[in-house]
Model the fold of this input.
Amino acid sequence: MSKLYLMCTIMNRAQLPEFLSLYRQEGLDRNLIMLAHGTATSQVLNIFGLENAEKAVCLTVINDSVWKSVKKGLERRIRIDVPGTGIAFLVPMSSIGGRRELAFFTDGLDYAHDGEESELKHTKQELLMIIGDRGYSEQIMDAAREAGAGGGTVIHANGTGMKRAEQFFGISLSSEKELILIVTATKQKNAIMQNVMKKAGLETGAKAIAFSLPVSDTAGLKLLQSDDAEEEPEKAPDAQKDEQKAD
Done:
């Protein structure tokens, strides 16, 4: 069975239409697009012959089999290996909030998941990525906080392929989007996603869709790390002595 990934593409903003054209030909028409700016120093840019161009970031749900074809197109058609063109990389997905949303993201992909949509991959921490219509970030964050989330980061973005949502949801989605990023403990993830879907989901004005990515480690999140430590209590002194004898 194919695995699901979030493909992140960073490219020169002027080349965005070319990248999107390739992705659409591969059946990947649901993309989240954000504008960005490169941070390399002028010295580094001169060394590699790069321009300090405006960037675009594109997020797309993909499986491993489609990625093989997309990668060939990026290398042969767009020549992504030429310095300054862009980069693309995959991040494994850990869950998608809701079966309809899972069907929406995987439409056209060779993917069949027999278990729960919240059991694609397990880690101690998760990065929740919640996509909602622009102007509803506070409603989304209020719902997330009610279920135990801390803070979040809001990024303005544009979505493509929103018209196809009507065949899955029976509603129209705005192309003007906000992406909310929240890092949380895995044990809190489902409660947060469920409350967001309930208070800010497709039946509300926010029309939020949520999914999560595995986080292998964190720094600066003492509360999450403390929670994990509590789940692994120290061994009793007798047990420690037994282990030392065994050594």
